[in-house]
Specification:
- The chain is α+β, with helices and mostly antiparallel strands.
- It is 28% helix and 28% strand.
- A three-stranded antiparallel sheet has the order 1-2-3, covered by helices on one side.
- It is globular, with a radius of gyration of 19 Å.
């Protein structure tokens, strides 16, 4: 007897996987904390808080600078 296989695809799965939290940023290592953008560098077991910046773009540049130092 031959069995039929059905492949069911959830159309909303890709949309669900791409959603971000309200604290997320377009930059790695930057997240919204109150009215400021928090910068944190994580490398292996090390987690280093850099600071809180009012501008998201400046926070992204600050992360880039410190991520090179802490790698």
């Amino acid at each position: 007897r031959r069995q039929r296989q059905m492949c069911i695809r959830d159309r909303n799965k890709s949309v669900f996987m791409q959603t971000r939290s309200h604290r997320g940023s377009k930059f790695r290592g930057v997240s919204k904390n109150g009215d400021k953008w928090q910068v944190m560098v994580v490398s292996g077991d090390m987690k280093k808080y850099i600071g809180a910046i009012t501008n998201e773009d400046a926070a992204g540049k600050l992360y880039d600078k410190y991520s090179l130092i802490f790698q």
